[in-house]
């Protein structure tokens, strides 16, 4: 009886009232987000390269928004393309500035070029990812982050991005073309710090583990590999795991928010979920009619989104191990999926997708209905990602060589 009474006290009127207030706050915040998304419009467009752009990613706080570092945490966009180079662009306000206010650096505008390394790979870049800002960053250290890229030259590379203290005060008066050739005029230096070699065929995708300590790569050699970020170097990449459980070319890869699972997809339509603690397959999903090229875990940790050549987004319930939704999203191959950030300003309330049909789209994660269609690229949209913040910024890159910002 005492146990029943104690259990029942959990649902006392005060607790229920607090829960109802919390739910109402979440619903109100969600409605504000969806209203903002329905009013999305093209904010800016920038030519990103002389050849098509194939991949884009944005900075994030990862699973820990409480960093020891007290300086600015700028929102950054990274792009990779067919020329084999990496460029860094301004994404807007600081990560901590969720309610508006001054920009991190008042002399730069969204999509201004902040850093460039014109030759990172010998051939086109297929996938790019940015390491989340880490708890190890302290107020006494300079702010650094890292960009990983995967290429059809059979290798992946890790590039460290550091603040350029010697950047000229009037650097923003130099046009982007000259800045790309003279990196001393740019706000960030991009330096190669590790060369990950071992795959026997072209690489497809790359993703950082939530801790930032590991990076995963996929390849046409039917394998995916896990690498140690800290101990890899330009001389040798430290390979931790080689997994060959796919029968076809492996393309998509994504990590679970708690870092325990990794999902991979292949050209045979198979989606695999691997347990990183054992290195074995935890489960697999079948349902796509054609190649599956992208995979993304929801911030809530209970769902997995996949998409590919059949133009359909499938949502898988990881607890019941079965599909929970199938969205006829696009009329052509879907190139990338990204959930919104898990921070309080977005709370994982929407999912974005890009496609060869020339559009990007934004979907509600509550009922999987379409919220907005982003039309503006001339041709295939190769990549898409979300900028943290209440303005719900979305960036896309395309075969038309442009990088576009939507707000």
Key structural traits:
407 residues, mainly beta, 3 helices
Summarize the structure in words.
Helix content is 10%, strand content 44%. The chain is mostly beta strands. It has a 4-stranded antiparallel β-sheet, with no helix packed on it. It has a 4-stranded antiparallel β-sheet with strand order 2-3-4-5. A hairpin with a 4-residue loop joins strand 16 (270-275) and strand 17. It is globular, with a radius of gyration of 21 Å.
Sum this structure up briefly.
With 407 residues, the chain is mostly beta strands. The protein has helices spanning 2-9, 13-38, 176-181; strands at residues 42-47, 53-58, 74-81, 86-94, 113-117, 125-130, 144-151, 155-163, 188-197, 203-208, 214-219, 224-228, 238-243, 250-255, 261-266, 270-275, 280-286, 292-297, 303-308, 312-317, 322-328, 334-339, 350-355, 359-364, 370-375, 381-386, 394-398, 402-406.
Outline the fold blueprint.
Blueprint: H1 2-9, H2 13-38, E1 42-47, E2 53-58, E3 74-81, E4 86-94, E5 113-117, E6 125-130, E7 144-151, E8 155-163, H3 176-181, E9 188-197, E10 203-208, E11 214-219, E12 224-228, E13 238-243, E14 250-255, E15 261-266, E16 270-275, E17 280-286, E18 292-297, E19 303-308, E20 312-317, E21 322-328, E22 334-339, E23 350-355, E24 359-364, E25 370-375, E26 381-386, E27 394-398, E28 402-406
């Amino acid at each position: 009886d005492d146990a029943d009474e104690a259990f029942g006290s959990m649902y006392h009127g005060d607790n229920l009232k607090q829960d109802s207030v919390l739910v109402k706050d979440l619903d109100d915040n969600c409605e504000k987000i969806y209203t903002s998304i329905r009013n999305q419009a093209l904010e800016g467009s920038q030519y990103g390269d002389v050849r098509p752009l194939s991949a884009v990613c944005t900075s994030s706080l990862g699973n820990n928004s409480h960093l020891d570092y007290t300086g600015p945490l700028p929102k950054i966009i990274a792009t990779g393309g067919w020329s084999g180079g990496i460029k860094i662009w301004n994404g807007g306000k600081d990560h901590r500035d969720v309610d508006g206010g001054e920009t991190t650096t008042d002399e730069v505008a969204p999509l201004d070029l902040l850093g460039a390394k014109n030759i990172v790979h010998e051939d086109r870049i297929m996938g790019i990812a940015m390491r989340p800002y880490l708890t190890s960053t302290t107020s006494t250290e300079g702010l650094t982050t890292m960009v990983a890229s995967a290429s059809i030259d059979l290798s992946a590379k890790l590039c460290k991005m550091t603040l350029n203290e010697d950047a000229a005060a009037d650097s923003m008066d130099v046009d982007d073309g000259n800045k790309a050739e003279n990196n001393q005029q740019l706000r960030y230096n991009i330096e190669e710090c590790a060369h990950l070699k071992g795959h026997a065929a072209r690489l497809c995708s790359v993703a950082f583990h939530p801790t930032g300590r590991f990076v995963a790569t996929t390849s046409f050699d039917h394998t995916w590999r896990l690498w140690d970020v800290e101990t890899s170097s330009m001389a040798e990449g430290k390979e931790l795991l080689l997994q060959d459980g796919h029968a076809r070319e492996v393309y998509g890869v994504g990590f679970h928010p708690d870092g325990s699972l990794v999902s991979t997809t292949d050209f045979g339509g198979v989606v695999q979920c691997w347990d990183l603690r054992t290195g074995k397959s935890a489960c697999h999903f079948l349902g796509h009619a054609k190649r599956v090229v992208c995979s993304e875990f929801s911030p809530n940790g209970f769902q997995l989104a996949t998409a590919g050549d059949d133009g359909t987004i499938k949502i898988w319930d990881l607890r019941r191990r079965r599909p929970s939704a199938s969205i006829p999203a696009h009329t052509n191959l879907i190139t990338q999926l990204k959930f919104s950030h898990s921070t309080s300003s977005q709370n994982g309330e929407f999912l974005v997708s890009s496609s060869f049909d020339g559009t990007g789209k934004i979907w509600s994660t509550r009922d999987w209905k379409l919220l907005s269609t982003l039309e503006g690229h001339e041709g295939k949209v190769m990549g898409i990602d979300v900028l943290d913040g209440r303005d719900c910024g979305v960036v896309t890159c395309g075969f038309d060589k442009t990088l576009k910002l939507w707000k």
